[in-house]
Amino acid sequence: MKDELSDINKELVTISRFAIRGATEDSRLYVARMARENRIKNPDLSKQLADLLIETPALKRDTFFRQLPSSTLGRGSNSVPWDTVAEDEYPAFLVGPIDTSSVVKPIFNEATEKRFQGILEEWKMTKELEKAGLKPTRTLFFVGAPGIGKTLSAYWLAKALALPLYRIDLATVVSSYLGQTGNNLKSALLFARQKPMVLLLDEIDALAKKRDDDMDVGEVKRIVTVLLQEIDSWPNSSLLIAATNNPELVDSALWRRFDEEFSFSLPDKEQIRQATIRFFAGDYADFQEFQEIFPLVFDGMSFSDIERQILQIRRTRVVKGGAPDQIMRGFIEEHVPKKHRLEIAKLVIGKGFSQKDINRITGVSRDTIRKYQRHED
Question: Is pTM, for the whole model, over 0.70?
Fold first, then answer.
């Protein structure tokens, strides 16, 4: 009972603080949060709060933030300085700042490496671009399967640009109340643009679906419209990154608004080589003799899958013991597709493996192994 009273008192104080400051939109966000939190334990209250939000439309942008002298941000804005806003007053839909201090550079292919370096060079010369009437790349669209570096690339860019990283929390921004998700998203985006940052919209396909979705009753159109407007007016001082595993679900109009699109693919042979060095870490020297076969062993896997498999190899060595060649033999036998085993057999001939071992590991007949062995000799 005391805990419940304490929570109620805290909510009353927060709402009162917003009211005294004239922070109408902050009040709306807080009421929306309370409506969500009370859906199960107090549905009547939740409905009353939701009805109140519907009755009181969101403010336009010029009255969204608390009014202060325009000099507070130095950009002609009427917004409250970001650094003076308490963390518990951020929109609930923004997560951050995310710590990127330990983020390592993704393993790019050569073409992607050059494109990212080009973006970094643009940002170093922002003032020169603006003098020429140009803008640095402000919006990026990342496309690709899970586990191949989209999120890591966003984190790394934030670190390389020395900008704080924030992301939109989809679980929080999406509301079951008709029309509220678009308002939530707009609130988060408007707040985010008040300070230089990298803002990540991961899994954007969950928000910006094609507007011909038969299951939609107008909400998707509102969300896409919000995103289009925000992208068009996104400030030069921040980088907006959207990422998706399912580009076919995203409204095509959204794609055209982004400055650049990056398509991430599964790692090639050179990227696999670099990945094995990174993920084997201090154990790499013991497994280096297998470097030639790693591109076949890990062919078709994402970076996250490669890391998972290598960590399992390293754990197996610690838990069960055994020499690296024994551990790798067991791993190849269990995980490598048959189509690659002949190639692996040819690669390991003369590497200390007997014909019997190669046959057991790869399934390639001993006659075939002898033929290739004679060829090698």
Answer: no
